[in-house]
Amino acid sequence: MMGENKPRSRKGRPRNKGSDRIRAKLLTEWRGGIDPPNPARNIHQPDEFLDDLLKIVGLSDGVDEERLKEAWGTVAGEFVSKHTVPESIRDGVLVLRVVQPAMKFHLQQMSSQLLQNLHRELGKDTVKKIVFKIG
To answer: Which Pfam families match (predicted)?
Structure first.
């Protein structure tokens, strides 16, 4: 009997099944139900609502940033794409960050050709104007 590990009450006596049932019933009544409510029941992740929110705001038809960078590499060529970075595109205006002023001037001269190539890659309504900034 020494190795027996039964739960004991305060007085040192082993608990019986009747007192366990009473204890469980009291705890259930005290908690207000059988199972306590899940504390995470009303917590949602932002991605559950983000797509719907973007559609409401009108931003769902934008260009994916990775797609834009890939298209820019194809449109501009290897040398130019190494020295420029597509920074953002909003309302059809593509902002390109250019490394040097000479590169900016060169790209401004060929902006109409770049626009035609971007229309071919991304669609005609995606990019309407290219703005260059040094940085």
So the answer is: DciA
